[in-house]
Amino acid sequence: MSRRILCRVTLLWLLxxxxxxxxxxxxxxxxxDHYFNSNGVKIHYFVRGEGEPVLLIHGFTASxxxxxxxxxxxxxxxxxxxxxxIDNRGHGKSEKPHDADxxxxxxxxxxxxxLDHLGIDKAHLVGYSMGGFITGRLMIEHPERVLxxxxxxxxxxxxKSQRLDFIEELADSLESGKGIGPLIVRLTPAGETPPNEEQxxxxxxxxxxxxxxxxxxxxxxxxxxxFVPEDQLRACKVPVLAIVxxxxxxxxxxxxxxxxxxxxxxxxxxxxxxxxAFRKPVFIDSLKAFLAKHSRATAKPQPVAAGAG
Length: 309
Prior knowledge:
Order of helices and strands: HEEEHHEHEHEHHHHHEHEH
Number of domains: 1
Number of strands: 8
Low-confidence stretches: 1-25, 304-309
CATH superfamily: Alpha/Beta hydrolase fold, catalytic domain
Helix content: 25-40%
Largest sheet: 8 strands, mixed
Strand order of the largest sheet: 1-2-4-3-5-6-7-8
Oligomer: single chain
Mean pLDDT: 88
């Protein structure tokens, strides 16, 4: 591989994990660190603004800072909303246990515990990638706490899919010190050549600058608990927005989700992949419109699901 290609690969991943989007750079202001205890684990979060609460839930290997602050999404919302961005356990400035039992549904419940800690009864949920899957499970488990749910770069998958095998492969790779190579390959858009071994090693080095591989392995093993049964997804009445890049391999899950719930609003970001969709202006524009439509002031009462109560 040429030095030129190596430089381009390194630049891409540094841009994704370390820099601020140009269209958002002007407004960024320092944020105060906050922490709370979530069932014995110290969780870090940011909060700013007034209005209806919006809880931002980041993706795997990312953080509140890299996913929401540096992309400008946090600043784009805090003029009209009380914006909260959590560092999921195992990530960012939150504690990073190595026990898989500390993840899974604990990550889902962290979101509710944070709302309780802040005295918030209901919030808009916005999750990306892993955060999107957490959002999907959260709206099933606690629909009474959710004003709306936005799932970016995440959809729905049957428990019988190949995702279970992938989870084991990625966790084993992390535990053995080989890194997140299987994830990078999985997220390579169709028709593109996956990174070679040297490129994967370089990308992994960049990602692990801010991550604990053993904690990430435990996070991955707990992700089997994020699966949502089809009948529960169909019965859920929470308003949902799905935003996904046209070149994101996870778009298939969004398409599957939309078949189960045709009422879901789907926005496809043309030309974007999994690592770039949330940084496109159409992401925040679509999100703002959806939040406004489903605010407490404008939302129509949702019918109660059969058998509820």
